[in-house]
Design brief:
The chain is an alpha+beta fold and 391 residues long. 23% of the residues lie in helices and 30% in strands. The chain binds flavin-adenine dinucleotide (FAD).
Length: 391
């Protein structure tokens, strides 16, 4: 194993942003090394709900301004990759649902009116009834209205596994990162004592970016963390449901996604308003009690008597919000040979990689012949949270 490695692009962080970028760069002939200090996907990515948003949810509060936002194109790009015809071949990745749904319980019409008035969703939303309803809502007692959004839900563990395959020999498990300078310019990183020289360094370490920037002695861009307190329910009576349930406000009252546990049962993963400010303030037992009450009132026909419950506290890492930051695009800051960013959503990993590729092209960085990097210690794949918390 060489103690000095040369590569075109050195990526730090093996979540969806780093892995997607890595796979795209390799496909274009760039040599890469991707350093991961814990497990692949084990940061925010495997804790996400896997929804490939097209922006419909954001139209509820008017934040989506229209087609110029990158997010509107994400479902198409993901679908093409999942079909094996897009920018990456993700044909083996499991699609959990062809659609995400918007579900308005009872008679709440106010927020739906403004939602349908939004240009961003016109023509992309259809009402569904009867057998077209998501399985968990197919009950004579169900009274609400349900709309099908052109958004996908992917199985993130199988996505990360496929992206790790596409990474070939480029993955490196390592903890200690220090800057490597030549004549005062960043020439790469020293990783667990090994020099890795690179034309460009990309930090895609999610919440880890803040500490990495400090290590490199750089104060910008600033990062913010948005805490969430998610709820997980596993039970033999649960059926698949992928939906934003609307409340009176601009945010979904609850967002439900359904994931396969290792023992074959379904796990409902609950986010939305339930997991935000008030939910963050609650202790786990109170958060579970609140979630249970919500489900019992929204879906009284579901038997939860045998359900197992857990909560998960997790922070979303994002660039510190300023007037200049648009929430529905990935964020990338370029400082000479260093790039640092956050996709801000799993769905925006393709947009994050576009931004890096555009910066490489701007700077005239092309693939160069490099010796291959075999025998590097490999980081493990992360275990899905539902299997960790509800074994
Ligand atoms: P991460 O997945 O956090 O990966 C960063 C990686 O860097 C980690 O593996 C970490 O171990 C590694 N790392 C950290 N420090 C270092 C270091 N010093 N050296 C080496 N490696 C390091 N988005 C959607 O589009 N749809 C959703 O449905 C959705 N649901 C979400 C639900 C929740 C509860 C949360 C928290 C987020 C959700 N998101 C969703 C957002 C999405 O998960 C994130 O935007 C995305 O996963 C971020 O990917 P990332 O690769 O930047 O970061």
């Amino acid at each position: 194993m060489p103690s000095v490695i040369s590569t075109d692009v050195l990526i730090v962080g093996g979540g969806v942003a780093g892995l997607w970028l890595n796979a795209r760069l390799r496909r274009q002939g760039f040599s890469t090394v991707l350093v991961e200090s814990a497990s692949l996907g084990g940061g925010q990515s495997l804790k996400s709900q896997g929804i490939i948003h097209g922006g419909a949810k954001y139209a509820l509060h008017g934040a989506l301004s229209g087609a110029s936002e990158a997010i509107a194109d994400m479902p198409r790009r993901w679908r093409e990759s999942l079909n094996g015809t897009g920018e990456l071949d993700l044909s083996g990745v499991r699609l959990l649902s062809e659609a995400h749904y918007l579900w308005s319980p009872g008679t709440i019409a106010g927020n739906l009116t403004s939602f349908f008035a939004s240009k961003a969703v016109r023509g992309r939303v259809d009402q569904v009834k009867g057998e077209q309803l998501p399985p968990a809502l197919q009950n004579p007692k169900f009274k609400g209205k349900v709309y099908r959004l052109a958004e996908l839900v992917v199985d993130v563990p199988s996505l990360i596994e496929r992206l790790a395959e596409l990474a070939g020999d480029s993955l490196l498990a390592a903890q200690q990162i220090e800057p490597l300078h030549d004549n005062g310019e960043l020439a790469g990183l020293r990783v667990d004592g090994r020099e890795i020289r690179a034309q460009r360094v990309v930090l895609s370490a999610g919440p880890g970016n803040a500490d990495l920037l400090e290590t490199l002695g750089i104060s910008q861009p600033r990062m913010q963390r948005r805490p969430l307190h998610m709820v997980l329910v596993k039970g033999p009576t649960l059926k698949p449901l992928y939906a934003h349930c609307l409340g009176g406000g601009p945010k979904p009252r609850i967002t439900v996604t359904t994931h396969p546990a290792a023992d074959g049962q379904w796990v409902w993963y609950l986010g939305g308003d339930l997991a935000e400010a008030d939910g963050v303030a609650r202790e786990p037992a109170a958060q579970i009690a609140t979630a249970r009450k919500e489900l019992e009132s929204l879906l009284p026909w579901i038997d939860l008597s045998q359900a197992q419950w857990a909560t998960l506290r997790v922070d979303r890492a994002e660039p510190a919000q300023s007037g200049l930051v648009r929430p529905d695009n990935a964020f990338l800051d370029v400082q000479q040979r260093l790039m640092v960013g956050w996709p801000t959503k799993l769905a925006l990993a393709p947009d994050f990689s576009d931004r890096v590729l555009a910066a490489l092209s701007n700077d005239g960085i092309h693939p160069t012949p490099q010796p291959s990097t075999t025998d590097l210690p490999k980081p493990p794949l992360a275990i899905p949270v539902w299997d960790q918390l509800l074994p």
